[in-house]
Write a structure and sequence with these properties.
The complex is a heterodimer of chains A (about 120) and B (about 110). Chain A is an all-beta fold and about 120 residues long. Helix content of chain A is about 0%, strand content about 50%. In chain A, strands 2, 4, 5, 6, 9, 10 and 11 form a 7-stranded mixed beta sheet that branches. A 4-stranded antiparallel beta sheet of chain A has the order 1-3-8-7, with no helix packed on it. Chain A is globular, with a radius of gyration of 13 Å. The relative contact order of chain A is 0.32. With about 110 residues, chain B is an all-beta fold. In chain B, the strands form 2 sheets. In chain B, strands 1, 3, 4, 7, 8 and 9 form a 6-stranded mixed beta sheet that branches. Chain B is globular. Classes of the chains: A mainly beta (about 120), B mainly beta (about 110).
Chain lengths: ~120, ~110
Amino acid sequence: EVQLVESGGGLVQPGGSLRVSCAASGFTFSNFWMSWVRQAPGKGLEWVANINQDGSEKYFLDSVKDRFTISRDNAKNSLFLQMSHLRADDTAVYFCAAGPHGDYLEFWGQGSLVTVSS
Amino acid sequence: QSALTQPASVFGSLGQSVTISCTGTSSDIRGYDYVSWYQQHPGKAPKVIIYDVSKRPSGVSNRFSGSKSGYTASLTISGLQAEDEADYYCSSYTGSSTLVFGGGTKLTVL
């Protein structure tokens, strides 16, 4: 059974940092592009970042480009999103997702809530 | 990285068909045959129902179909069932190796 399990979300003050993680199982993690997608409360989906199979290619939403970093550890089947200089409008559920190529997202986690507030 | 344009809501009766449109630009929908559609029920994770414009993942009902013409992609759901009531999002690959989503469409089954 495919599983993507996010962790690390929580409450952080504006300007602070947080790292969310995603543990994958049930598929060959190293063969998949991985993405982070977020959903602000009551709003739609927003793609945030992705990383290719070996970590050599990384792409970001313009509004997070200088603040967020994406990485992966294929030996541990894990994906990470390091977020810094967080703002109130970064408040969202952050979903981890996997796709065989970079064009669609086949598997999704249940999400981890990140709340940026003082 | 502007969002694709979807209607905010659509309505359909049980057993009928509905079509949801998704309009983009030459940098996304018009430029690539990499449109996907996702179904999201309240409080749940999204689920892919169409990828590469018209392909259905294993296990997805053939009542869901996708197409594309020019700048607009479409999702058609035939034989509407109560369980189809959900939010639907389109997405497209872009020329920058990124993805962009539509604003989402809430489907209400009457």
